Amino acid sequence: MTTVAPASTDTSDIPSVVAKLRKTFATGRTRDVAWRKRQLEALEKLVTENEGAIAEALEKDLGRKPFEAWLADIASTASEAADAAKNVGKWTKRKHRLLEKAQLPGRAWIEYEPFGVVLVIGAWNFPFALTLGPAVGALAAGNAVVLKPSEVSPASSALMAELVPKYLDTDAVAVIEGDGAVSQELIAQGFDKLCFTGGTEIGRKVYQAAAEHLTPVTLELGGKSPVIVAADADIAVAAKRIAWTKLINSGQICIAPDYLLVDASVRDELVAKIGETIAKFEAGSSGKKIVNERHFGRLTAALAATKGDVAVGGGSNAANIEIEPTVVVDPALDEPLMTDEIFGPILPIVTVKNLDEAIDFVNSRPKPLAAYLFTKSKATRERVIKEVTAGGMLVNHLLFQFSTTKLPFGGVGPSGMGSYHGRFGFEEFSHRKSVLTKPTRPDLTTMIYPPYTDKAWKLARKLF
Ligand code: NAD
């Protein structure tokens, strides 16, 4: 059984687990497309057959409702795995390229090669989707994989450690549980590829440690994802969509609406409608559960420090580590709510005079993982798409850019590098090997072999 559990500091087994995976990879077993397909189908089964246990673990770790557990962790991982199982045969095919005249005769193609043994370090907020999801791309690409779930969601981590060996090839896929020290010990093994999901600061440390081994990295990081609400937005729908997506998983989502930039002419209407929506969606709830005391303390301190008007909520309950859904209007731009990623159920709303001000605001800050816009106007939409840089963009809704296999998901600059989902995950975990084959006869290069005559030079100038 290739599981090391649950060790926060005991790292003694790590080299032998990695050595075992290396040995398996060297046999070529994981390159076989039928093997990849079987692993992907098994991964889909792992999440669908254990829906109840997964929902229970998510409830224990995060206080998540079963519907949200299914939508965000189970359905998304299952559809990624199913899509990859269906398409992996097509994805692995050589991509032939037409050569320039000077390169003829010859044939050229891209050969997709697995990197080898891949390390996936997951985050706690969607522990299954953000650990097993990247594994889909890694397995589709024919790699052996070590999964390191987050220790901050221990029930989910333990469940993955229990289930993965039951469904997947134990000689090629291992779960190693533990904290940051375990992650660092793993990175020190010198993996062939690493995918990390987590905060930007830890991402920096991971990148530095990986550089020691020149391990290529995919960094899925965080940041403050803005929502621009233009004067012509459908305010009733915008309010519902923003309130819903801010409160899923208590706002602990990397692509949650972090703050709003709202045109002054619709600000009050939007605040009122978000307040009404929250009252309806959260009727009977005592507050949103925060993952742990550290994060609860960070959020309540940010709220206590605000210079904005608390228009909705504002309360918290330390005994249950719960925070009321909260809306803060016009906080100071240099206070924690506006400088740090919120990752909780608090929504700051910044009033702007016009679209120019909103675009300038976003572009004057670190490039976000997601940028959102509510508008009915095509011209406004096109301007924001062209002028705002972000990992991804969604117009008139939120979050759904994560749940399609048709688009790459990833950040830019401080919100990350590299991307995955669908074919993009396969590509991310594959080395694109360039292959050029040439016949030996006729040996046309004879025309330019040394000694270099003027005639050969003239010909070479024409050709190249
Ligand atoms: P985190 O950075 O605290 O931890 C992520 C992982 O890193 C965990 O598995 C943890 O054990 C490990 N880790 C901790 N210290 C480490 C170290 N020194 N070296 C190596 N690994 C270490 O992140 P988190 O709190 O789990 O998640 C929240 C952050 O992640 C937010 O910023 C959020 O925006 C971001 N996030 C990004 C995405 C995305 O897809 N881009 C998804 C979810 C979360």
Q: What does it look like?
A:
By secondary structure, this protein is of the alpha/beta class. The protein has two domains: 14-221 and 413-433, Aldehyde Dehydrogenase, Chain A, domain 1; 226-407, 3-Layer(aba) Sandwich (Aldehyde Dehydrogenase, Chain A, domain 2), CATH 3.40.309.10. Helices cover 42% and strands 18% of the residues. The protein is built from 16 helices and 20 strands. It has helices spanning 14-27, 33-49, 51-62, 66-91, 129-140, 154-167, 180-187, 200-211, 235-247, 267-281, 293-304, 336-339, 355-363, 378-387, 422-428, 454-463; strands at residues 3-4, 95-97, 107-114, 117-121, 144-148, 173-176, 193-197, 217-220, 226-229, 259-263, 288-289, 309-312, 316-317, 322-323, 326-329, 346-352, 370-374, 392-395, 416-417, 430-437. It has a seven-stranded mixed sheet with strand order 1-6-5-4-7-8-19, with helices on both faces. A seven-stranded mixed sheet has the order 12-15-16-10-9-17-18, sandwiched between helices. A three-stranded antiparallel sheet has the order 2-3-20. α3 runs antiparallel to α6. The protein is globular and about 80 Å long. Mean pLDDT is 95; it is low at 1-9. It binds nicotinamide-adenine-dinucleotide. Residues 121-125, 130, 148, 150-152, 179-180, 183-184, 197-199, 202, 205-206, 220-222, 254, 341, 343, 369, 411, 416 line the site of nicotinamide-adenine-dinucleotide.
